[in-house]
Amino acid sequence: MIGTVVLATTVLFLCNFSKPYHKADLRALREVVEVLSSSAFEGRNAGSAHDSAIAAAIAERMASYGFEPYFSEGPLHRFRYRNVGSWNVVMVYRGENTSGALLVGAHYDHLGKGGSGSGSLRPDTTALHPGADDNASGVSAAMETARLLKESSQRRKLKKDIIFAAFGAEEKGTIGSAILADTLEKMGSLPKLMINLDMVGRLRDSVLQVGGTGTFQAADSLLGTHLVPSLPLLLKKSESGYGPSDHSVFYRSGVPVLFFSTLPHTDYHTPFDTPDRINYQGMAAIVTYVTAVARAVVVEGFEPDYRETMDTTKIPGQIRFKASLGVIPDFAYEGEGFCAGTIIKGRPSHKAGMQDGDVVLQIDQQPVKDIESYMEMLGRLEVGQIIHITIRRNGQIIQLKVQL
Question: Which class is 2-298 in CATH?
Answer without folding.
Answer: alpha beta
